[in-house]
TrEMBL record:
InterPro entries: ATPase_NBD, Hexokinase, Hexokinase_BS, Hexokinase_C, Hexokinase_N. It comes from the Eukaryota. Residues 473-488 have a biased composition (Acidic residues). It is an enzyme of class 2 (transferase). GO terms for cellular component: cytosol; mitochondrion. Residues 229-460 form the Hexokinase C-terminal domain. This is Phosphotransferase. Residues 27-223 form the Hexokinase N-terminal domain. Pathway: Carbohydrate metabolism; hexose metabolism; Carbohydrate degradation; glycolysis; D-glyceraldehyde 3-phosphate and glycerone phosphate from D-glucose: step 1/4.
């Protein structure tokens, strides 16, 4: 267990429930969240197999980790330039940006940007409403920045799993993270955007590049550091992309070069392969989510769910009369009201913990506040360690692909959980060093990957490149396991 504070130790030893075996109580609630280094290694090994399934021509259609080709074949080389529009949908807000990439100064400048809220009803409404709203926000932005007469290329950061057929043809596989608009799954998102713009008829856009936020993150960091070949997001959702050898992407025609693969690692575990490490609280979070059975790994890790996991643990401990004199306040009893940002604040200091517990209407003691901190620490640490296990799989794979004894690489990272939590990034980094000892990883926090990075993808996409094509889906036998490389 993490370091137990003095107050907590007192509680453990004085609580009447525990007189015989004081350690049992804390262990009972928190131990299922504690993953040993061996378990993390096992998680990493399972993901390694799933990456292969996702890349395989025959096994792909059943693979929980989708390994989606992005048609991004190169990271920036510093020659990119021009003016771009960027749209960003998939995090907490929808944004429109005007971005300028200056070759001489090697700079990506955000000229202007505007945030448009997406009301909750719209996240669950029709696709047409959503895309009309997006087209309106874009129209208003162009109008107010005198850009309506221009036909600028547009990078669309759409942070959901999409089967990309080309850089500007992207079929939504499924919604994740709180979105569930009807009539969009299975459709080409670029087409839906163009139709909405056409319905208005008062402006035009140039060529479109579809971008996952992980790819934007990798590309925005890649402009600064050309060895950045991985992009990782730990925010509302979680995911990562990396540069894979095209010859290993069996669904893509061609042998030469590399392509960025959007792993969609949030779907890891959707086939039940993580059931042995799920806690009763993870099961409950999944069951009450709008997409049960989907994105199991994401639900153990990302900002959309961490607060709720903590809340469920606290509710259970309170019901068992171990916290808050057995009294559950209305706020603590309400789904979604224990926000993930509280975890960061509570872990940041005892005073914050006291303030938040008061705001949640709880009658707390000093010991309660310490226990709550321990619960937050345990659940956020598990998230960091699981991310580390997944990232270790990717760096080890890149190292093996290139037959290197030692790999030096850079990971571009973004997301509120990684940025805002006081110890998340250091725990993740420490654990990944343990799990991938032959890799020397630099972590670079991305500066607006979804805006500037999207512009960068759009710029790189305009470069002439070898064409690749997605091969027809085939339903053959699952024999991709044979591709397992030696020495992984
Ligand atoms: C989506 C990914 C995205 C991630 C981070 C997940 O829910 O499926 O496409 O990259 O969230 O935003």
């Amino acid at each position: 267990l993490p370091a137990v504070t003095k107050a907590l130790a007192q509680w453990v030893f004085s609580h009447p429930y525990n007189t015989k075996r004081p350690e049992v109580t804390v262990v009972k609630y928190l131990q299922p969240f504690q993953l040993s280094p061996e378990t993390l290694q096992e998680v990493s090994a399972r993901l390694r197999k799933d990456l292969l399934r996702g890349l395989g021509k025959h096994s792909h259609h059943k693979a929980p980790v989708k390994m989606l080709p992005t048609f991004v074949r190169a990271t920036p080389d510093g020659t990119e330039k021009g003016d771009f529009l960027a749209l960003d949908l998939g995090g907490t807000n929808f944004r429109v940006l005007h971005v300028r990439v200056e070759e001489e100064a090697q700079k990506v400048l955000k000229m202007d940007s505007q945030i448009c809220a997406i009301p909750q009803e719209m996240m669950l409404g029709t696709g047409e409403q959503l895309f009309d709203h997006i087209a309106t926000c874009l129209g208003d932005f162009l109008e107010s920045h005198n850009l309506k007469g221009q036909t600028l290329p547009l990078g669309f950061t759409f942070s959901f799993p999409c089967e990309q057929l080309e850089i500007d043809k992207s079929i939504l596989i499924r919604w994740t993270k709180g979105f569930n608009c009807s009539g969009v799954e299975g459709k080409d998102v670029v087409q839906l955007l163009k139709e909405a713009i056409h319905r208005r008829g008062d402006y035009h856009i140039g060529s479109v590049a579809m971008v996952n936020d992980t790819v934007g993150t990798m590309m925005s960091c890649g402009y600064k550091d050309q060895s950045c070949e991985i992009g990782m997001i730990i925010g509302t959702g979680t995911n990562a992309c990396y540069m894979e050898e095209i010859k290993n992407v069996k669904r893509i025609e061609g042998e030469d070069g590399r392509m960025c693969i959007n792993t969609e690692w949030g779907g890891f575990g959707d086939d039940g392969c993580l059931d042995d490490i799920l806690t009763e609280f993870d099961v409950e979070v999944d069951k009450t989510s709008i997409n049960p059975g989907v994105h199991i790994f994401e639900k153990m890790i990302s900002g959309m769910y961490l607060g709720e996991i903590v809340r469920l643990v606290l509710v259970k401990m309170t019901k068992d009369k171990l916290l808050f004199k057995g009294q559950i306040s209305e706020a603590l009893g309400t789904r979604g009201l224990f926000e993930t940002k509280f975890i960061s604040e509570i872990e940041d200091g005892l005073e914050n913990a006291k303030k938040i517990l008061t705001e949640l209407g709880l009658d707390w003691s000093l010991v309660d506040a310490s226990v709550v901190r321990l619960v937050c620490d345990t659940i956020s640490s598990r998230s960091a360690y699981l991310c580390a296990a997944a990232l270790a799989t990717l760096v080890n794979r890149i190292r093996n692909n290139r037959k290197l004894g030692h790999l030096k690489t850079t990971v571009g990272v973004d997301g509120t959980v990684y940025r805002k939590h006081p110890t998340f990034s250091s725990k993740l980094q420490k654990a990944v060093r343990l799990l991938a000892p032959q890799c020397d990883i630099t972590f670079l926090v991305s500066e607006d990957g979804s805006g500037k990075g999207a512009a960068m993808v759009t710029a790189v996409a305009q470069r002439p490149a070898h064409q690749s094509r997605l091969l027809e889906e085939s339903d053959g036998e699952d024999n991709e396991e044979e591709e397992e490389e030696e020495g992984q």
